Amino acid sequence: MDSLYVLEPGSSIRKDGDCLKVFKGGTVLDTIPATGLRQLTLAGRTSLSGPVLDFLIQHRVDTVFLTPGGRFRARLLLDEPGHVALRQQQYLRLADPGFRLELARRIVHGKLENQVRMLLRRGTQYDRKELRNVAVQIRALQAKLGNVDDVEQVRGIEGYAARLYYSVFGMLLRADGFSFTGRNRRPPRDPVNALLSFVYTLFTNEILNGILRVGLDPYLGALHEVAHGRPSLACDLVEEWRVFGERLVLTLINRRVVRPGDFVRQASDEGQGVRPVLMKPGVSRALIAAYYRQLEQSMNYPHTGQQTVLRWIMHGQCRRLAESLEPGGSPYQPFAVSR
What we know:
Layout: E1 3-6, E2 12-16, E3 19-24, E4 27-33, E5 39-43, E6 47-48, H1 50-58, E7 62-66, E8 72-76, H2 84-94, H3 97-126, H4 129-144, H5 151-169, H6 191-214, H7 232-237, H8 242-254, E9 263-265, E10 277-279, H9 281-295, E11 298-301, E12 306-309, H10 310-325
Parallel strand pairs: 1-5, 2-6, 5-7
Antiparallel strand pairs: 2-3, 3-4, 7-8, 9-10, 11-12
């Protein structure tokens, strides 16, 4: 097993020989071979023993801490030597306003292309002209990207396209008991938004893994501004993959793998009237299992012309970005879902 998610609240992890054991209240919930572990993700309040922490550091296991709702909190950051030259090039290129603008344009163009393809396909499948109409509007916004002259305008186009896209996203839901009236987060206030937030976090973490393996600085991007604690480059590169997360959420809902009763609503947050919605652990496990199945699906990777599993395409895109930063490198090309 190369990845482990611990979702049970109040659990703890201890090392026992060549295995990691997950405990809760003195009961062993799971036993996992430690050999080969590449990533450990902890949701909610999970404690680690000293020997486990030593193991994670010595074996350079990427360790991610999430809130119970799947929002990123922190990461065990391990020093990666040998990437100074590449990062110097990253800082130089992204300090160039023209280069940064063009990269931001390409990132948003790729995201909008995938949104358009998604809506056109589902509009035909469900015979909903509203979906096709919004796809046409997003396509028109896509065409405007070539005329903007600063990154803030690119963000404006991306934000407007997102509002259009989410305005019809609820039409893609085909199961009773679920509805979607718009994107909300921090915290999510309905089951669909809870699922979207969690799956977006999963995809962002995978992109972040790819960025770190390539050797880039994940905190300096083109589209997203530098912000404390935010891996802006990962937020940039995950944009082209959001539609994959959305398809996964729709599949789980429309095939009734998850049901309205699989979510709990917490009390209002500090009297502000916000009642966040959380997934029960069973739903989180089902989502993660479906996510990993999706990562192992093969599809054509235009860069190589070969069938490649999705995870390695995602990592390959991180390498493509690194290559685009080199002098004379080809412009970055986001991955497009098949028509």
